[in-house]
Write a structure and sequence with these properties.
- This protein is globular.
- 20% of the residues are buried.
- Helices cover 11% and strands 49% of the residues.
Length: 156
């Protein structure tokens, strides 16, 4: 039979869990509510928030809008004007030498609270699983380290 933890044991458990996440931070997590869905991935000193409309649930043959909010350590947004960003879209499964199915041109867009971030429209040709790979380097080489992130998307 399980007994409730005392306040001291609960606090110790909370501190242990908190220490684990501080020492070993999650590299990828999802946040969603009925209106907003985002995935965040960290690469080097850049965090990339990924969003796909409609509601991370694209359909084949229909327009989807994808955007990436790039953030430096400390929270400062990196606009597309400061990043040599490239998006490549692959069909899954893929091998290491597979060429991208698409490499759409990114343009500066505004989405939610973000201004001038990389985004584009995509039409996925058929249902299935795709991988979106975003990589980038700073236009001013000292601003942030090169980064590479990838996101899995299921198209219906």
């Amino acid at each position: 039979m399980l007994r409730p933890l005392s306040k001291n044991k609960s606090l110790k458990l909370l501190l242990i869990i908190g220490t684990f996440f501080y020492v070993q931070p999650l590299q990828k997590f999802s946040y969603s509510n009925p209106a907003i869905a985002h995935e965040v991935e960290v690469s080097g000193d850049v965090a990339v928030t990924f969003h796909l409309e409609p509601n991370h649930n694209p359909r084949s043959g229909e327009k989807a809008i994808v955007w990436f909010a790039l953030t430096r350590r400390g929270g400062k947004i990196i606009p597309l004007s400061e990043c040599n960003c490239q998006l490549a879209i692959y069909r899954e499964p893929r091998s290491s030498n597979t060429q991208p199915l698409m490499q759409p041109q990114l343009k500066a867009i505004s989405a939610e609270k973000y201004r001038g971030i990389p985004g584009t429209e995509i039409i996925f040709p058929q249902a299935g699983i795709y991988q979106l790979e975003l990589k980038g380097t700073a236009k001013n080489n000292n601003d942030f380290k090169p980064f590479k992130t990838s996101y899995s998307v299921t198209v219906r």
